Structure of [FeFe] hydrogenase, group A:
Amino acid sequence: QCRVVCPTGAITIKKDEERVWEALDDPNTRVVAQIAPAVRVAIGDSFGIPKGTNSMGKLVGALRRMGFDKVYDTTFGADLTVYEESKELVERIQNNEKLPLFTSCCPGWVKFCENKFPELTDHISTCRSPQGMFSALLKDYYRTQDEKEGVDMKTFVVSIMPCTAKKGEAIRDDYKTDGVQDTDASITTAEAARMIRRAAIKFEDIEEEAVDMPFGIVSGGGVIFGVTGGVTEAVLRKISYDKDHNHKALGEIKFSGIRGIEGVKETSIMLGDREVKIAVVHGLGNASKLIEEIKAGKRNYDFVEVMACKRGCVMGGGQPVPAGPRTKQMRMKGLYSVDTASQVRTSNENPLVRLVYDDMINGREHKLLHTR
Ligand code: SF4
């Protein structure tokens, strides 16, 4: 496969980009990309594509032309997160322990909680983020394949994220498996756009391509992880799946108050006879205020989704700028449109997730999908 090397050593480029170029240039390294949900509706901004357009197919094509060997969708990791996080929520409710359960997929929030509310870190879900789960799975998958086939090759996992905080998450000790870093380089949407330009690829003209198998089917629920309320909506879809999963149920969840841009949103669902109280908060100022109220006993929840960036990852610090009100709105709309058009709306319906649990994870959820 043709590999494009960074055309200039004279221009100062960020360290992560350099490492990715080096990996792409190394014939003994398999370079694997995973693309976060919110990236697809923002990267087009860097190339004059209409706001909120889903450019996932073009990005896949561009990465292949740059020499990436395999390209995947982080939404697959989000589907795994939904499985693990809903299981954890149900268990904690049954045992009535460490409630509310706080989500763990936003490293900006996790770090903030560790610094400002260390007494609450036990309440944060032990689930790795979608980036963390998927990188661990990818490394494990290629290691197993290479051992079987007697191939001696290094796997270098690059995550393309809307987020600068994901770089810090990637190097955390609790995001290593057997002491090895799972995500080798985390680059932002803006950095990916810069690399595409350096490779002299005309993004606007690239034909859309699909991601690779065997992780190539993802759910719409996983895609909306990129917008505030999306994690909660995906978890609620999963929890309500068994009893009444149908379009009516999806519609009810959609209109239950977890969509929209208010700083704090609330909803509840019944789990048997138990009412499960849920809050969705975005922006660290809003989160801090909400937590003080929870600590003071003024508010009471079982599940709290926290995203550090207002509106969620669509407005992450690694996304292209400027992003005014229309851009914000169109990115959110873009992700919801991808969800609506998805054949698979919930992680439960994703046939590959079940296969991965049975054939690859094989009882090693704690090792591959959770932190300490
Ligand atoms: Fe990163 Fe912001 Fe998304 Fe948190 S909300 S994961 S800080 S982009």
